[in-house]
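T-complex protein 1 subunit epsilon
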Amino acid sequence: MSHPQMPKAIEDAKIAILTCPFEPPKPKTKHKVDIDTVEKFEALRGQERHYFDEMVQRCKDVGATLVICQWGFDDEANHLLMNRGLPAVRWVGGVELELIAIATGGRIVPRFQELTPEKLGKAGLVREKAFGTTKDRMLYIEHCANSKAVTVFIRGGHRLTEHLLALAGAFFVLLSKYIVALELKLALNPELPRNKMMIEETKRSLHDALCVARNLIRDNSIVYGGGSAEISCSLAVEAAADKIPGVEQYAVRAFADALDAVPMALAENSGLQPIDTLTAVKAQQIKENNPHLGIDCNDIGTNDMMEQNVFETLIGKKQQILLATQVVKMILKIDDVISPSAF
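Structure:
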């Protein structure tokens, strides 16, 4: 809240979301005001107080119980808001204003003259909470009737990495069911030097989970992971290469070998013998005609990715292969390389 004596919790809040500042109107041209007497100063101050009083009263008349403003306001306006019993929050970013409007069902108002009861947002509870050793303050807007927005707040800590994957997985499940808009709020504790790296890693993990959920919403087709899709595609490309006459078949076989790089990397990163493991899984796929067989990275005891419930989106897999192919085509178009030593 903008004033320390304003209430820290507001129930059944009606929120006025403003992008207009609590300040007197300013001329658009260059101007100069000469005040040489006390009477002129009192007249100027009285006019400013009248402007502030009119703005606050307009917010009260439409039934607002909380004002959230994109801009700041001076101490006189702040004091007047406190005396009139109208809590206010200032210096709220434009992105945050949009998310608040989505969550509360309100409208962003650019002028006080356009403020009406229909444009007020509604929330069951708005509260201010202090946390951490630095007593940082955050505003919670809860129990919104039409909320499809959520804020994930992450604070750095030594045990953060232990909960990283669990948080990303739980967030993936939650997003796929309920969430449409998301804003990430990240806070760093300067006392812990490793926190910045942990926060960034958590941010990337949550972003990856969001992208997976978004892809599933767009297209719910999936392929099984563990390199099973790449191995199956590699076998299909090798079979197609046998039907191509001439030297072009070598380019097709090279594409199949490139697809094998993914399962081979998975096997190597899991501490397995990459060549032996890839050869065994390939042979098993051909023998059983099962395209779901991949690299058992977690040493569960089965190579069937369907049983392990390891999968990824089809749209993501197609995009990966497409982008990799485009990169190779760009590199092949380079017919000369100029190195600095040549000059």
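Strands lie at 9-18, 66-69, 88-89, 108-109, 121-131, 136-142, 149-155, 181-187, 222-224, 311-313.
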